[in-house]
């Protein structure tokens, strides 16, 4: 083979290799799917949007999104069956408690079921909704809670975000 033939063969080989390298997709760096127009986080202007953001906050342990669900004068209440009385706390304590839950679990899964009661108007509504909460501390320690959330949701105008003002937890 003469020098000209070797150069042509080398050039042909380089064109094939470069074409192959530049036309391949890296399977370890796939492109982001932009075909879906559905956002994971909503604008929270609907009641269902608030519950969707709640589910997101628990799933991804996102305290920023969770904090945005609560009004500044938020009150959480649950029944302490051992002591026989109700326990309540404010937004600051709720955020500290929820952050501890987020930090000390491997996985949280909340399923919002049917709304069994809803009454109110476009600025203030009371909702009672059933839920299932699975808390995975580790593979050998999984807690499952079922029950109801009685919530008072408020917003300033009909274009504002819904926020949870009062939440009475009735899980068992």
Protein architecture, described:
The chain has 172 residues and is of the alpha+beta class. It has a single domain, classed as Nuclear Transport Factor 2, Chain: A (Roll). It is 30% helix and 40% strand. Strands 2-1-6-5-4-3 form a six-stranded mixed beta sheet, covered by helices on one side. Strand 4 and strand 5 form a beta hairpin. The termini are far apart. The model has no long low-confidence stretch (mean pLDDT 88).
Compact description:
By secondary structure, the protein is of the alpha+beta class.
Q: How large is the share of residues in beta strands?
A: 35-45%
Query: How are strands sequenced across the largest beta sheet?
Result: 2-1-6-5-4-3
- First and last CA, distance: 85 Å
User: What class do helices, strands and sheet pairing give?
Assistant: alpha+beta
**Major sheet, described briefly?**
6 strands, mixed
Number of alpha- plus pi-helical segments = 4
Shape summary = elongated
Element-by-element helix/strand order? HHHEEHEEEE
* CATH fold descriptor: Nuclear Transport Factor 2, Chain: A
**Contiguous runs where pLDDT drops below 50 for at least 5 residues:** none
Provide the domain count: 1
Q: Cα-atom Rg, whole angstroms?
A: 26 Å
What is the mean pLDDT?
Answer: 88
Helix content: 25-40%
Q: Find the count of extended strands (DSSP E, 2+ residues).
A: 6
Do you know the CATH architecture? Roll
- CATH class group: Alpha Beta
């Amino acid at each position: 083979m003469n020098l000209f033939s070797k150069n042509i063969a080398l050039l042909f080989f380089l064109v094939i290799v470069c074409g192959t390298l530049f036309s391949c997709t890296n399977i370890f760096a796939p492109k982001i799917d932009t075909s879906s127009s559905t956002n994971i986080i909503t604008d929270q202007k609907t009641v269902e949007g608030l519950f969707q953001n709640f589910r997101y906050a628990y799933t991804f342990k996102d305290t920023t999104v969770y904090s945005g669900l609560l009004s500044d004068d938020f009150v959480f209440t649950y029944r302490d069956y051992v002591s026989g009385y109700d326990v309540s706390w404010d937004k600051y304590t709720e955020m500290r408690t929820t952050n501890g839950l987020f930090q000390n679990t491997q996985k949280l899964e909340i399923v919002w079921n049917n709304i069994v009661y809803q009454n109110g108007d476009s600025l203030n509504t009371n909702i009672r909704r059933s839920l299932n909460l699975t808390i995975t501390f580790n593979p050998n320690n999984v807690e499952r809670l079922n029950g109801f959330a009685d919530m008072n949701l408020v917003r300033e105008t009909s274009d504002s975000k819904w926020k949870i003002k009062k939440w009475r937890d009735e899980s068992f």
